[in-house]
Amino acid sequence: MDFVLVLYQPTQWTLIHQLSAPLKYSIPHAVVSFGPAGQLVRVTPGSSTQKNISQLEIHSMEVILSETQEQQDMRNFPGPLTREGLHKVDAIEFAHQRAGACMRDETLHDKISASLLWKLLILLCRQNGQIVGSDIAELLVQGSRSDGSWESEAPTLIDFSEGATAEAPPCQGDDLLTGSSSSGSEAAQKALQSYTQLLLAGRKKEALEAAMSSGLWGHALFLASKMDNRSYTTVGSFGRFTGQLTVNDPLQTLFQLLSGRVPTAATCCGNDKWGDWRPHLAVMLSNETGDAAVQQKAIVTMGDTLASRGLLHAAHVCYLTAGVPFGPFTQKAERLVLLGSSHR
C-alpha cells in the first residue's frame, strides 16, 4: 500500500489512503465445491437488482463425466472398496483385473513391473499378509504372457492360472533323474580322472588348478583346505569361482550378499545391459543371511536404483518386500506414499 499527502489548507496536512492494487473480486463471484455423494455444488450470488438472492445448483459428477473413459471403467467394475463388506475374493478379483489391464496398457513404461505389483498384493491377500521371502521369490521368477497371465518354467506352489499346465518332456539325451546331459557327465568324469591322476602322482598344486579349471569346486575347496593357507585363500575366497560367472549372474548377487556386502546388482540393475532385476531380488529374498540389516539395505538400495531409472513400480516392489513403511505425502524424502504413484 502507498500513502500520499494532500494539502487542504496552508497549515493543515491530511493523510489519505490510496490503493495500489485492484480488488480481488470486482463483482460477486460463484463458489464451487464437491459434495459428499459425487456432486458438484455451485452457488451463484445474486446482483443488487435481484435483492441479493443467491442461486444454488447441484450437478451430478457421473452425468458430467459420463462420456469419459474413467467413468466407463467405473461402470464396468466399480471396485471392492465401494462397499462396506469387503470379501477377500472380491479384492483378489479386482487385483487380477488390474494386473491384466497393466499388461495390456501400452502407455506404461514398465507394464511387467506394474502387473507384478498387483500380483504381490494378490499374494498378500491370499495368505492374509503372512508371507516369507521364498514366496515372493517364487512369484518374481515366474514369466508373464502378453495378456497378463503368468507362466512358470518350473512347478510352483503359487499358481495364478486357471487351468492345469502340461509338464514338458525331458530333452533327448538328458538324464531322467538329474536332468544333466550325457555329454556333460562324460566331460566331468574325464576331468575327475585327470584330477585323480595328478593326485596319484603327488602333484597337488597342478591337481588344484585342474579342479578349478574343470569346475570341480568341491574337490578344489577340500584339497586347498589341506594345503597351505595361500592355496585355501585362493579357493576359499571364491575369487576364481566367481570370476567364471558373468557380472549380472544372480549367483554373483548371492555370494556377495552372503559375504556381508551390498551386491553390485543393487546399484547397477534396471538397464538393458544389466538385464532383468527380478532374479537378483528373488535370490536375496529366498536366502536369509546372518545380518538382516545388510539384506534390507541391499533391497532398499535396489529399489532406489530402480526408482532413479524411472521404474517406479519395480521400486515399490522392492520397498514392500524390504518392509519400508509408508510416509506422509508432504515428506519428499519418503520412499513409499501411494503404491504405483510418485509424490516427488
From TrEMBL:
Principal location: endoplasmic reticulum
Compartments, as annotated in UniProt: Endoplasmic reticulum membrane; Golgi apparatus membrane
Listed name of the protein: Protein transport protein sec16
A GO BP annotation: protein transport
GO cellular component, as recorded: endoplasmic reticulum exit site; endoplasmic reticulum membrane; ER to Golgi transport vesicle membrane; Golgi membrane
UniProt key word Zinc: no
InterPro entries reported in the protein's UniProt record: Sec16_CCD (IPR024340), Sec16_Sec23-bd (IPR024298)
All residue ranges annotated as the Sec16 central conserved domain in the record: 29-129
Topology of the protein relative to the lipid bilayer: Peripheral membrane protein
Quaternary structure (record): SEC16A and SEC16B are each present in multiple copies in a heteromeric complex.
Keywords noted in UniProt: Endoplasmic reticulum, ER-Golgi transport, Golgi apparatus, Membrane, Peroxisome biogenesis, Protein transport, Transport
Role: Plays a role in the organization of the endoplasmic reticulum exit sites (ERES), also known as transitional endoplasmic reticulum (tER). Required for secretory cargo traffic from the endoplasmic reticulum to the Golgi apparatus. Involved in peroxisome biogenesis. Regulates the transport of peroxisomal biogenesis factors PEX3 and PEX16 from the ER to peroxisomes.
Organism: Sphaeramia orbicularis
